[in-house]
Design brief:
- Helix 6 links the parallel strand 7 and strand 8.
- The two termini are about 15 Å apart.
- The chain has two domains: about 5-235, TIM Barrel; about 240-310.
- With about 325 residues, it is α/β, with parallel strands linked by helices.
- The protein has 13 helices and nine strands.
- The strands form two sheets. A seven-stranded parallel β-sheet has the order 2-4-5-6-7-8-9. It has a two-stranded parallel ribbon with strand order 1-3.
C-alpha cells in the first residue's frame, strides 16, 4: 500500500472522511546516507499534514540510522515515530529489516538497547520528547520466539505496540492468529493495539469485545476497500456509491495535478482499484477496462462507466 497511501491520499481522505484519529505514513527507509528522498521529504513535510495527526514510520536495522530518522522527525515537529517490524516484502526481509528483524530476537534486542542509549544522550531537542511506537508481526516463520519478543517490548519505553498477528511467511493470507494476539495483549506491559483483517464495523466490534483493553486498532486494506470504515466503526452511516465516487474523483484530479499527468497516476489509481474493486463484485469487465486504460482520458471514461452502470456492495470479507 506504500504507493497508494501517501500525502495526497491522506488529505483527500481526511477531507471527505474526517473520522480517523491518526494516520501512519509509508515507511521512511533510513539508510547510511542519512538523508530523505524527495518523496519522503514531501510526505513528512509538516505543511502537508496539518489537517490530522500524522505518525511517521521508519524502516531500518541500524540504531544510528534510527536515531537520525527520529531526530529528523523531531525537527519537523512530530511527537511520535513508529518503528516498522512488520513489512513482509521480499526486498526488505533478507536485509534484516521489517519483519525480517523478528528472525533474530537477540540482534533486535541489541538494536533497541543501543538505540535507546543513543537517544538518551544525543537527541537534539530534549524539550520536545518523541514517543517511539512499534508495528510488529508475531514472528518470521514461526511464533516460538514470541515470548522473547514480548520481553523485548517490555524492556524498553515504547509508547505503544501495534500487533498484526500473522507471521511474515503468512503475508496477508489465512486468518489472524488471535491466540497469539492474546499472548501479546496479556503479556505486553505497554499499550497494545490490534491490526489485521478489519474490514467492517462488525470486525471492529468483535475484536474490541474480545480484547477490551486495546489502546486502539489500525486499519490498512480495509480502509482502501471502504474509506468510510472508521465512520461506520463509530456508529455512522455506511459508505454510499456517490461518496466513493467523489473520493475517487478528488484523488484522481489531485494526483493528476501533483504528478502533471504522468503514467504514475494511472499506476496508482489502478492499484487502488485492486481494493475498491471489491465494492463492485459484478463489475469484472468494467474493471478490466479501467486497468487497460493507457491515458488519463481513457481511464476517466472507463471509471465513469463503472460508477454509472455498476451496483456497489461493500463486502464483509473482501477476496484478495
Amino acid at each position: 500500500m506504500e504507493g497508494i497511501t501517501g500525502v495526497t491520499f491522506r488529505n483527500a481522505h481526511r477531507e471527505l472522511f474526517p473520522q480517523m484519529d491518526r494516520y501512519y505514513g509509508p515507511f521512511i527507509a533510513a539508510t547510511q546516507t542519512l538523508s530523505l528522498k524527495k518523496k519522503e521529504m514531501r510526505d513528512t513535510d509538516p505543511d502537508n499534514n496539518r489537517a490530522y495527526t500524522y505518525v511517521p514510520q521508519v524502516l531500518t536495522n541500524s540504531p544510528e540510522q534510527l536515531l537520525w530518522a527520529v531526530s529528523e522527525m523531531q525537527t519537523r515537529g512530530y511527537s511520535e515515530v513508529n518503528v516498522n517490524l512488520g513489512c513482509p516484502s521480499g526486498t526488505v526481509v533478507p536485509k534484516f529489516k521489517g519483519a525480517g528483524m523478528l528472525g533474530d530476537t537477540d540482534r533486535l534486542d541489541r538494536l533497541f538497547d543501543e538505540f535507546f542509549g543513543l537517544m538518551g544522550r544525543k537527541m537534539p531537542d530534549e524539550t520536545r520528547p518523541v514517543r517511539i511506537s512499534v508495528k510488529t508481526r508475531i514472528g518470521l516463520d514461526d511464533k516460538n520466539g514470541l515470548p522473547k519478543l514480548i520481553a523485548i517490548f517490555n524492556r524498553y519505553p515504547f509508547s505503544e505496540i501495534i500487533v498484526h498477528p500473522r507471521l511474515r511467511t503468512d503475508f496477508y493470507k489465512g486468518t489472524p492468529d488471535l491466540e497469539a494476539f492474546q499472548m501479546c495483549a496479556e503479556g505486553i506491559t505497554r499499550p497494545v493495539a490490534y491490526n489485521g483483517d478489519l474490514f467492517s464495523a462488525e470486525d471492529y466490534r468483535r475484536i474490541t469485545a474480545r480484547f477490551p483493553s486495546l489502546s486502539g486498532v489500525m486499519m490498512g486494506r480495509g480502509l482502501l476497500v471502504n474509506p468510510a470504515l472508521v465512520r461506520e466503526m463509530k456508529g455512522g452511516r455506511p459508505l454510499s456509491k456517490d461518496e466513493l465516487r467523489r473520493f475517487h474523483d478528488l484523488l484522481f484530479s489531485r494526483l493528476l495535478e501533483e504528478m502533471q499527468g504522468s503514467g504514475n497516476v494511472l499506476f496508482r489509481m489502478k492499484e487502488l482499484w485492486y481494493y475498491m474493486g471489491q465494492d463492485f463484485p459484478d463489475a469484472g469487465p468494467y474493471i478490466k477496462k479501467v486497468k487497460k486504460a493507457k491515458t488519463p482520458a481513457d481511464y476517466r471514461t472507463a471509471a465513469d462507466r463503472l460508477f454509472d452502470e455498476c451496483a456497489m456492495r461493500v463486502p464483509e470479507r473482501p477476496v484478495f
